[in-house]
């Protein structure tokens, strides 16, 4: 019977994961999925429209969907939202998708929370009258060195950067002023040689068709505006050079028409898609997407395949879905301490394993997309710390079969994915590596080993937490489990010492190879060293008999604080070679985490007789 | 007496001391990391790690008080603790071999860090495209130079380190027909042309400038606080009086900011006087042939910096080209040249030049410690699984 239940739990988990593979659909019959897969060059790499949409939605408003509450009630999938920004700016300018919470920034913009959707999201049009003042404030803030900026200054800059990003996006494909860009381009194509002649004639005061010259100049100005404001390079090259470097901005490509006498056909295609979207003509739109995709198959087939896989990966949301499974597994494991022990332990372990496999696939796809080892920035380190720790939990669960590995795995797996989600709000997570860090060899050795060191130190800390919480607050901690936990923590600390030490020294060797010093007392290096020393302290305290089981557990919990400092705290200082992961918002979360750990250390020192599990621990 | 020795040996061998020292080192490292925001990496190294005590000044005075043991003290005690414990308890068994190897590796690592701290030298080498140089310049140290330029083919340089200038004692050198007297010294200062000061500029901050010769009389001298920032350096100013047999030749204001040589004639020879970044001459030269600064497509994110250089030895035994880029330095005769900074718009590249005799030690330490720990924990794991299997069976 248990077997049938167990298979059903597993099957439900798999179905839930696979449900993400359903393509994005539209009520009006638009081939949104096809558009989402189209490749563009942005932030230094080829990516699908889908990633552009999701990254912008996340940075603007912290969510991958756009919807507003009643009375306006608008709902848009990422691609629909992107199409509106591209082609129906007059609608998008009214979308309340800029999240602004700092009261000072709202004052600058002349807004109150009540004006916002959900009291915090505002539209471009709501801010339009105050952009000059915002820009003045941002320019002042920019004059101050980044680490010295206060919360208001950071918020002002963030808001301004979001508006810039939105403006850039609007200018990617067509001029966003509601004109019929397609017909303008078509007319230009027909009039081109004569038009250029007319402009030439006008400048030399010769006879010319004035209206024609004006149309040319108007087009030229529009293209220049597109070139100036856009950031994305959506158009594949027409010439011999088919490399990523040759992709073009729409404005730049269209300006070329005045030399070549031919309007860029890809720009024309995108304009035509735009007109179809404006007319809500699904049939034409779909046809154009299909034709354009087929056209790309020739020279850019490999690009299209790659962006297509990335779009599928985005839509499947493997990390989000895994985090849900981790939570379910964690709850099962907790309940298993109290009732229905064996079966729940088993189902929980299955779900953790399933979620771990899904994150493994997710990480592997990211590696393939990027052509890099798994850890390249703070976001991917969060994924990998979780992956490593949960992997160790699976091994522990296999050895001990007592639900502890599942509990810790569910908790750490969910926690790290939550952290990763918050880190993803800062932009494209598959960002390019800055020159200093551009070394796959060292990324694959130093960074991976040190990250596994973080994983293991956290795991030891979380196992210790389980010991403390179960012992003090429940009656479920018996002698056998306590001993098992004690052995687990010791084993994991040994493992953590090995990896954090070797990883740290390898980091020194990388520094020596690349920058000419083995050790520079850089904050991140110091952070790594603190982890090594802390693990060494735990081991020496145990060997010297200075700390017994409870002491070791308290020390291991403190390891969580040390590791979180090394992982995030050091990045908040904003100095040193490693400050690639600079961030502000997480500061208070870190403080809260540290405090919670200190409280739990204090809890560990509740007199042994007062522990709810005291009897069972004594009985043995 | 032997009781005392026993007590000492118990103290220095104890694991308790190890733990206490490790905790103290964590506190030191943590506080030093926070201090970097103010002091910069270099300031922190000097004031926290390469010192026996961390000093704090009594408020409103210049009196330093030791407030915490510094890196040398904690590291030294750790070293004594480590060596003493091993000498005292050493006993070779396979079971303990891993631990012993790890600790031996740690000793090598600490010694290596000490050697680097004492002997490593860092210089920078700034080259414009096409330029050739056979010397590099110190990142922090400066020197006053008095150069006999009479001979068109070579300069005869007498260099005085900044530390001697700071000490302000009169200097008499066999090669110089005059004495050098320091009339003023500012470890960091700004200069401005007096006639170009904006109207109504704050002149209250002007320091006295008694200079009488060269550029000096036309300059305003503004002392500045010492900077510890990693991207700034202190630019000192000195007021140098030269005194020949017949009396003073004048007072010159010198600073690394003044790149034009200040020349004068004395005793039938032509001299120049200046303050410059301390130079280290090498028996070979580098020429910058080409520099490259690549960015990712459509962005300003740097992808790669590279400098193609030509290396020529003075004795003509070596003449080759080499490409220096990120993570790929050039090594030659114990010196390592790293790509450090680049300004492709202005066509120059800065290389960092490092000489460190203790360079190999961390590598050896890493190997020893990795083997040691793997051995130790592998041993434990093996025993653990064997015991489990036995109990399962």
Describe the model.
The complex is a heterodimer of chains A (620) and B (393). Chain A has 620 residues and is mainly alpha-helical. Helices cover 69% and strands 3% of the residues of chain A. In chain A, the strands form 3 sheets. Chain A has a two-stranded antiparallel ribbon. Chain A has a two-stranded antiparallel ribbon with strand order 3-4. Chain A has a two-stranded antiparallel ribbon with strand order 5-6. In chain A, helix 3 (49-61) packs across helix 15 (282-316) and helix 20 crosses helix 24 (587-604). Chain B is α+β, with helices and mostly antiparallel strands. Chain B has helices spanning 2-13, 15-49, 71-89, 94-119, 162-167, 361-392, and strands at residues 53-57, 64-69, 121-128, 132-148, 156-161, 171-172, 179-186, 189-193, 219-223, 237-244, 247-254, 262-266, 269-295, 302-313, 319-325, 330-332, 335-343, 348-355. Helix content of chain B is 33%, strand content 38%. The longest helix of chain B has 35 residues, at 15-49. In chain B, the strands form 4 sheets. In chain B, strands 3, 4, 5, 12, 13, 14, 15, 16, 17 and 18 form a 10-stranded antiparallel sheet that branches. In chain B, strands 6-7-10-11 form a 4-stranded antiparallel sheet, with no helix packed on it. Classes of the chains: A mainly alpha (620), B alpha+beta (393). Chains A and B meet through helix 21, helix 22 and helix 23 of A and helix 2, helix 4, strand 14 and helix 6 of B.
């Amino acid at each position: 019977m248990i077997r049938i239940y167990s298979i059903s739990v597993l099957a439900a988990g798999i179905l839930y994961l696979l449900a993400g593979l359903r393509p994005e659909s539209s009520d009006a019959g638009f081939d949104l999925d096809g558009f989402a897969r189209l490749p563009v060059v942005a932030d230094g790499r080829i990516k699908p429209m889908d990633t552009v949409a999701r990254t912008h939605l996340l940075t603007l408003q912290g969510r991958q969907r756009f919807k507003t509450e009643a009375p306006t009630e608008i709902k848009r999938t990422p691609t629909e939202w992107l199409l509106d920004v591209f082609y129906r700016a007059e609608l998008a300018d009214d979308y309340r998708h800029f999240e602004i919470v700092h009261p000072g920034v709202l004052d600058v913009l002349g807004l109150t929370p009540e004006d916002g959707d959900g009291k915090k999201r505002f539209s471009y049009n709501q801010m339009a009258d105050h952009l000059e003042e915002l820009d003045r404030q941002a320019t002042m803030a920019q004059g101050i060195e980044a680490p010295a900026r206060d919360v208001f200054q950071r918020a002002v800059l963030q808001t301004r950067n979001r508006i810039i990003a939105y403006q850039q996006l609007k200018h990617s494909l067509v001029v966003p002023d509601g004109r019929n860009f397609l017909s303008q381009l078509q007319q230009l194509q027909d009039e081109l040689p004569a038009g250029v002649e007319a402009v030439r004639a006008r400048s030399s005061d010769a006879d010319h068709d004035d209206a024609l010259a004006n149309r040319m100049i108007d087009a030229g100005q529009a293209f220049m505006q597109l070139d100036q404001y856009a950031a994305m390079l959506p158009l594949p090259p027409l010439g011999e050079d088919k490399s990523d470097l040759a992709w073009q901005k729409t404005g730049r490509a269209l300006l070329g028409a005045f030399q070549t006498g031919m309007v860029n056909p890809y720009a024309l295609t995108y304009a035509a898609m735009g007109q179809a979207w404006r007319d809500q003509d699904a049939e034409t739109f779909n046809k154009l997407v299909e034709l354009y995709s087929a056209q790309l198959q020739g020279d850019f087939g490999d690009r299209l395949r790659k962006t297509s896989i990335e779009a599928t990966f985005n839509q499947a949301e493997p990390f989000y879905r895994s985090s849900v499974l981790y939570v379910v597994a964690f709850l099962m494991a907790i309940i298993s301490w109290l009732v229905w022990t064996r079966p729940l332990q088993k189902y929980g372990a299955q779900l953790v394993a399933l979620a771990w496999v899904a994150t493994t696939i997710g990480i592997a796809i990211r590696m393939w997309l990027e052509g890099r080892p798994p850890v390249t920035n703070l976001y991917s380190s969060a994924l990998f710390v979780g992956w490593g720790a949960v992997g160790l939990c699976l091994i522990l669960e296999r050895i001990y079969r007592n639900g502890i590995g599942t509990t810790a795995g569910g908790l750490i797996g969910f926690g790290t994915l939550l952290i990763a989600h918050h880190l993803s709000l800062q932009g494209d997570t598959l960002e390019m590596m800055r020159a200093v860090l551009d070394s796959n060899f060292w990324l694959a050795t130093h960074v991976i080993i040190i990250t596994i060191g973080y994983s293991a130190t956290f795991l030891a800390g979380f196992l210790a937490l389980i010991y403390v919480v179960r012992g003090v607050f429940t009656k479920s901690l018996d002698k056998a489990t306590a001993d098992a936990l004690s052995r687990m923590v010791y084993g994991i600390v040994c493992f953590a010492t090995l990896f954090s030490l070797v990883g740290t020294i390898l980091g020194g060797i990388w520094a020596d190879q690349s920058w000419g010093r083995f050790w520079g007392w850089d904050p991140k290096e110091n952070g790594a060293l603190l982890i090594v020393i802390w693990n060494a302290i735990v081991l020496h305290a145990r060997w010297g008999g200075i700390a017994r089981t409870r002491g070791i557990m308290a020390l291991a919990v403190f390891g969580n604080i040390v590791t979180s400092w090394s992982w995030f705290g050091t990045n908040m200082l904003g100095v040193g070679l490693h400050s690639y992961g600079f961030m502000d918002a997480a500061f208070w979360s870190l403080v809260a985490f540290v405090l919670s750990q200190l409280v739990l250390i204090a809890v560990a020192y509740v007199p042994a007789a007062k522990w709810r599990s005291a009897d069972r621990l004594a009985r043995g | 007496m032997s009781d005392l020795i026993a007590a000492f040996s118990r103290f220095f061998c104890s694991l308790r001391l190890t733990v206490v020292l490790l905790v103290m080192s964590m506190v030191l490292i943590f506080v030093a990391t926070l201090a970097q925001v103010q002091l910069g990496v270099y300031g922190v190294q000097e004031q926290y790690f390469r010192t026996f005590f961390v000093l704090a000044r009594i408020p409103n005075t210049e009196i330093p008080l030791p407030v915490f043991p510094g890196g040398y003290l904690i590291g030294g005690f750790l070293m004594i603790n480590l060596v003493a414990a091993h000498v005292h308890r050493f006993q070779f068994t396979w079971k303990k071999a891993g631990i012993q190897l790890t600790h031996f590796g740690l000793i090598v690592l600490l010694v290596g860090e000490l050697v680097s701290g004492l002997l490593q030298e860092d210089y920078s080498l700034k080259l414009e495209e096409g330029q050739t140089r056979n010397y590099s310049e110190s990142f922090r140290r400066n020197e006053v130079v008095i150069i006999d330029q009479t001979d068109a083919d070579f300069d005869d340089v007498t260099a005085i380190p900044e530390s001697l200038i700071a000490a302000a004692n009169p200097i008499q050198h066999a090669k110089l027909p005059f004495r050098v007297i320091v009339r003023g010294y500012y470890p960091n200062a700004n200069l401005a042309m007096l006639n170009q000061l904006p109207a109504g500029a704050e002149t209250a901050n002007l320091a006295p400038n008694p200079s009488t010769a060269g550029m000096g009389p036309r300059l305003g001298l503004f002392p500045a606080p010492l900077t510890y920032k990693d991207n700034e350096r202190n630019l000192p100013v000195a007021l140098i009086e030269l005194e020949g047999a017949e009396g003073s030749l004048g007072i010159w204001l010198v600073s690394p900011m003044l790149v034009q040589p200040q020349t004068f004639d004395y005793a039938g020879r032509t001299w120049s006087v200046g303050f410059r970044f301390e130079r280290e001459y090498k028996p070979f030269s580098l020429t910058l042939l080409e520099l490259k600064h690549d960015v990712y497509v459509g962005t300003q994110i740097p992808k790669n910096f590279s400098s193609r250089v030509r290396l020529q030895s003075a004795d003509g035994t070596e003449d080759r080209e080499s490409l220096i880029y990120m993570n790929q330095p050039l090594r030659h005769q114990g010196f390592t040249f790293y790509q450090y900074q680049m300004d492709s718009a202005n066509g120059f590249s800065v290389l960092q030049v490092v000489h460190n005799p203790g360079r190999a030690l961390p590598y050896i330490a890493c190997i020893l410690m990795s083997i040691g720990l793997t051995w130790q924990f592998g041993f434990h794991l093996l025993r653990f699984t064997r015991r489990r299997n036995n109990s399962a069976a």
